[in-house]
Amino acid sequence: MSNSNHTSTFLFLTGLPGLEAVHIWLSIPLCAMYIASLAGNSLILWVVKSEPSLHQPMYYFLSMLAVTDLGLSASTLPTMFTIYMLGLREVALDMCLLQLFFIHTFSIMESSVLLTMAFDRFVAISSPLRYSTILTNPRIASLGLAIIVRSVGLHIPAPIMLKKLPYCQKRLLSHSYCLHPDVMKLACADTRINSAYGLFIVLSTLGIDSVLIVLSYGLILQTVLSIASKAERLKALNTCVSHICSVLLFYTPMIGLSMIHRFGKLASPCGCVLLSYLHFLTPPVLNPVVYTIKTKQIRLRMLRIFRSGRTRVAGGHS
């Protein structure tokens, strides 16, 4: 297919291989996950905005994570909905490129936010008296802007480069949404430049971020071990538990998926798809749960919301 007919190029998405007959039933838990993600992250944003005591750096970064999770959910939703609810697997190339741009952008954004949260925990534990002077509101806003510029700027060339490639194979993607390596494999032209650029993005973002997060925790551990009191050590480490859970939720499936793509040629296609769902769908659902369970201020505020809601309902019935 020549570049001139790119407007009529369609790609075909894949649901869970071998389970096509029950896709409509699988749509129920998937819809529940999207609703939970929307409700949980929106509630986190509302609680942080409405509670003056939560107007602190840690909760501003948590709000950034919630916005990123909402963006990641919204990026995967359109094609997941059409496959599982409507049984439609066809997607236009332009829509596919737009989707992969947003998925990868929000994915890098999530990684960047997790890195800033690791820095936040390091400053809070190593320099508690200077915490508010180091992480001022203008500095937090600058970090947020830097995250957006970095994530968007790095990914603008990717769909443009893919758009120029001819697609003349069977055009069957391996996932339920468009991803850069997946689309690139369908081109019948030399993709070494695209592949090198994709590798550069991964190493310069996810690679560097993960190394810096590990380094931050090494420094945090060093600081915590220098604290004399055991109770104070546990208290300091306890403030990091939620963030560690979020890091593991995001990076563990991604590393597994990366290993399978490179070395697991005989891996089950269904296993690859499930691991991909774990990477893109579970962090937006579980991050609000983890932070609500582990963060006392957010938990208490949410309990107050639900109690006042119940009181209003009871008052309306009486």
Q: Explain this structure to me?
A:
With 318 residues, the chain is an all-alpha fold. It has a single domain, classed as Rhodopsin 7-helix transmembrane proteins (Rhopdopsin 7-helix transmembrane proteins), CATH 1.20.1070. The protein is 75% helix and 2% strand. The protein has helices at residues 23-50, 57-84, 93-126, 131-134, 137-155, 157-163, 180-184, 192-225, 230-238, 241-263, 269-294, 296-317; strands at 10-12, 90-92. Mean pLDDT is 86; it is low at 1-7.
* Overall pLDDT score: 86
CATH top level assignment: Mainly Alpha
What structural class is derived from the secondary structure elements?
mainly alpha
Low-pLDDT sequence parts: 1-7
Strand order of the largest sheet: 1-2
Tally of helical segments: 12
Count the strands?
2
Domain G-protein coupled receptors family 1 profile: 40-291
InterPro entries: GPCR_Rhodpsn (IPR000276), GPCR_Rhodpsn_7TM (IPR017452), Olfact_rcpt (IPR000725), OR51/52/56-like (IPR050402)
Pfam families: 7tm_4
Protein name: Olfactory receptor
